[in-house]
Description:
In chain A, 33% of the residues lie in helices and 20% in strands. Chain A is built from 12 helices and 16 strands. Chain A has helices at 3-18, 28-40, 102-106, 136-140, 187-205, 223-239, 266-278, 294-297, 332-351, 384-392, 399-406, 410-422; strands at residues 45-50, 54-55, 58-59, 63-72, 78-79, 96-101, 109-110, 132-133, 146-156, 159-167, 174-180, 213-219, 240-245, 255-258, 282-285, 306-310. An 8-stranded mixed sheet of chain A has the order 1-10-12-11-13-16-14-15, with helices on both faces. The first copy, chain A, has a 4-stranded antiparallel sheet with strand order 5-4-9-6. In chain A, strands 2-3 form a two-stranded antiparallel ribbon. The A-B interface holds A 55-58, 90, 110, 112, 120-127, 129, 222, 225-226, 229, 233, 261, 286-288, 290, 295-296, 298-303, 315, 320-322 and B 356-357, 359-364, 366-367, 373-377, 387-388, 390-395, 405-407.
Amino acid sequence: MNNDTALGNWAHGLAKELWPFPRSLTGHGVRQTLDVLTREIPNLERHRVSTGYRAFDWEVPREWNLKRAWIETPDGSVICDTDHNNLHVVGYSLPTDQTLSLDALKNHLHADPGQPDAVPYVTSYYADAWGFCLSQNQLADLPDGEYRAVIDATLEPGHLDYADLILRGETEQEIVFSTYLCHPSMANNELSGVVVASALARIVAAMPRCRYTYRFVFVPETIGTLVYLSTRHDHLKRHVAAGFVLTCVGDERGRSYLASRWEDTLADRIALAAIAETGKSYDRYSFVNRGSDERQYCAPGIDLPFCSVMKSRYGTFPEYHTSNDNLEFVTPKGLAESIAVHRRMIQLLEESRRPKANVLGEPQLGRRGLYNNLSHKGSATGSRLMLDVLAYADGSWDIMELSDIIGADVDAVSDAVDSLTAHGLLA
Amino acid sequence: MNNDTALGNWAHGLAKELWPFPRSLTGHGVRQTLDVLTREIPNLERHRVSTGYRAFDWEVPREWNLKRAWIETPDGSVICDTDHNNLHVVGYSLPTDQTLSLDALKNHLHADPGQPDAVPYVTSYYADAWGFCLSQNQLADLPDGEYRAVIDATLEPGHLDYADLILRGETEQEIVFSTYLCHPSMANNELSGVVVASALARIVAAMPRCRYTYRFVFVPETIGTLVYLSTRHDHLKRHVAAGFVLTCVGDERGRSYLASRWEDTLADRIALAAIAETGKSYDRYSFVNRGSDERQYCAPGIDLPFCSVMKSRYGTFPEYHTSNDNLEFVTPKGLAESIAVHRRMIQLLEESRRPKANVLGEPQLGRRGLYNNLSHKGSATGSRLMLDVLAYADGSWDIMELSDIIGADVDAVSDAVDSLTAHGLLA
Amino acid sequence: MNNDTALGNWAHGLAKELWPFPRSLTGHGVRQTLDVLTREIPNLERHRVSTGYRAFDWEVPREWNLKRAWIETPDGSVICDTDHNNLHVVGYSLPTDQTLSLDALKNHLHADPGQPDAVPYVTSYYADAWGFCLSQNQLADLPDGEYRAVIDATLEPGHLDYADLILRGETEQEIVFSTYLCHPSMANNELSGVVVASALARIVAAMPRCRYTYRFVFVPETIGTLVYLSTRHDHLKRHVAAGFVLTCVGDERGRSYLASRWEDTLADRIALAAIAETGKSYDRYSFVNRGSDERQYCAPGIDLPFCSVMKSRYGTFPEYHTSNDNLEFVTPKGLAESIAVHRRMIQLLEESRRPKANVLGEPQLGRRGLYNNLSHKGSATGSRLMLDVLAYADGSWDIMELSDIIGADVDAVSDAVDSLTAHGLLA
């Protein structure tokens, strides 16, 4: 069992622990989640802003805390109980406790006739409303009569919580992995990103040296990201070399790549190179199909080079935003595959120098022991890769491009660069 | 009967009225034409320069005024009578009244054996000469004997006349339509341009608001255009966003597009977008095939972004520069089709902003009533186009490009931009 | 017999004369070669640097002078005699005279089992060693016993010799042809370059006028080129418009093109245009396949626009670096074909202006006698090429590009440019 398989198992276990917390934009479900992450990720730093905080065009809403929500049917049984599944309540529902007819109740019930077995995921962050979600089958079976709807929740001034981890490397250039924690029990479209980010944080923390500084961001989607950017945009604009949104990285179906707005940033090139190396097909999406926090990172004026490598892209799988997006759909194997491709992306990033020759003309490799001094037909073969690297080392090509030009393996090119650098021939 | 059909009929009627005037580079035929246009196009401004005026490498020639030219045959009958068809005289012929043998006369007769029924169109603006044009069939039938050739004309210092119309819009950026009036009775390769330009001037004048300022130019071809540019080049260089030469826009055969020298100016892109929307095939010509006033507008150093959307391109149809280029070849339907495509080009130009977001990150559409506050799978569909526009609104893409990127209709994108601008979200 | 055929014969004769001289990086073989070239190429200038001279990362080694080397076999016969074939000694062998067993001798013998009839070419410039080269067949037949190995040579402080010829043209912009003289009896991979360079020097010297200044460089490969660049790099960086390495230009097999590092320099474009005109297929190689002095000229930091037009590329033909690379493999016909294509490259270079119009708008060709003043359908045909050239003469296109755009022959475009320039219409 290799390292990524072990990390995939670990990540799935972590997702199971985080599953029941009632995450939303704000509230104790987010804090419970961050408590667990703080335990698992050394040096994770927690931050918060207050209700009313302005982030660009947005304002942080009141904090919503759900104790429990349920419906009592005419025969006294309890349905839509959030103690059983926290998708049953519309996110950010106003507190209520009222008795009402089935017809009146139906104005507050949400089901998806297209997936009659699944409970849909519905929120109402920015409009005063309350409601319950249930399967279409359950809805159809509800008898007439008086119902009691109880939402035992508070919606009061409070905070929006988030966290980040910065692992400093040899340079101030940053690689960012960003994921979100605001959906309650949703496995692929939430927890998979959180746990893969956690696994990558462990991988980077264990690397003996890093050229790049790595930043891991855990925020509520959209508003949390805007809050995060509101005080860090200038810094990120100056330092981010590449960024990746982690979401929908846990199922076992195909792989997807969602391009940045520019389509050719370092982030895009690294993502495509790592995917290509897997030798497996993938779905390529333009930024038009964006759907997660790249919407903010790549927004005009924000202009950060983010793209996304997913398994099934959000919105394309039937389980999306339903109770079927669960920890059977997300598997240790699916998580391990995403950890593996992102680990390779990190490795390619670390290798991604643009070497520049220190010497005018070819250097004399012979006196450095890098060239066969007895010259005959074929004698240069062993030195050819080094000579090829030197021949193109004008500072304009990075390792992946050199690999393409020369027709040699990326890692072999990187090794040649290391060797030439050690001999003082490359800057 | 739609608006363009009505304008096509009106334009054809106008062409009929202009048909008999003996237009040339100079003289009363041009002035008669401008008199009619002044009546039809409110605010058309007339201009003139004198013989000897220098325009770049050229000098305005003497003014040529033809009263009548004809040949008396040995049997006393009259042929090549310009009262019957003003193509019978070589343009700018010196005045003459002489009797000469058929052989001597033949040095002054022009016919086209390739089109034995047609009278060819011949001019001699810049060399002292005189001559007559007739069909090859008529030429072949001429009996031996003494002929009298009479050209009752004057060639004296005078003026070169031209006109323009400027319709001011909200900005000083200009769209130019240029056409020429120096060919006598020629329908496609002269009058079609004049009457379509007149129709477009009426269309623009009736528009409730224009972002662009529109300039319509009526000049003798080549030297008139150079005269026009000689005092306006600096202004045009600063202000012209796109220009179009109107010529050969009246027949019912295919459509042609002649690219600017750069091939990718706003003019080219607008022309191609409007043609593409018609869904019909067209012939694409590079600037190598130029033949009208784009020769001056796009000349090195002049460098104005002009292209041309025609029906049959000059030089490619057999009627070209013969008496067969008449008002049966040019039809109301052909003119209406050209009016329609140029009307659409104007509309696309008016829509062709490069929107730029006013807000960092996605704005909160919900509180502006532009987004469904109850969020569930599929709830964003209605706002998707606006979000897509915002996501790419970095000031570098215009409406047509956004339409391509997003995969939405140009007009729908334009509407979304209007709406977002009204809400202060786009600059 | 055309001029190039005659030059091919002359070049082959010159190669025969140069064949026996024991060329190496240094020594009297190089000087003998330069003596002959000085006789054949008027104004060839000779230069030298001393042992120990530093050229970038390299140091000029001691001068090696071979009198004679041979092996005496146990039965007293003489083999590997350099008086018979100077490939028999490893280049830069230390002097020696010793008796040793066959087994001990074999450590100093080089043969190529893959080509059992041929003597391979081996050098050891930068490591102290000595050795002999012989065919695998001869090696296999050597009887046991005592051998005497004699290398009568000196390896002492001295000089590295080279030469160049500068033919000044109307501008200081330079075209460089560079070839090398450090291989002993090798015909394609040495002498073909030397004699074709000599032929081209004669061609350029005989040209009545040149826009460009031409530089012909004769140097030992690699270190000689670096020595050459060490004092001339700044000058060459400022003045070289295009450069070509001449090597492997004498066989009768296919043609090869080796691109510069940038692939689209003037050198590349000229080479490809001349090759295309031959109508024959060729092998195209990227700079990854480089192997001669373009390794230095195109090195990062040196950055000179060099490419190479060869017959069979070095390393790809079995005769390469063996005694089979001889003057039967290289033929007068093969040399003549290379002279012809390089002569055409020179002609294309001389024609390669980027014309720029002197006049705004089209000039009036008529009053200059360049246009038919009697204008009728088709009358402009004769002037069309001149008008096309003027239409694109914005200073950004050169003759070859104009030829492509306009669809006319390069030489016809060049003639039109000459004519328009003579009339003051082009700068």
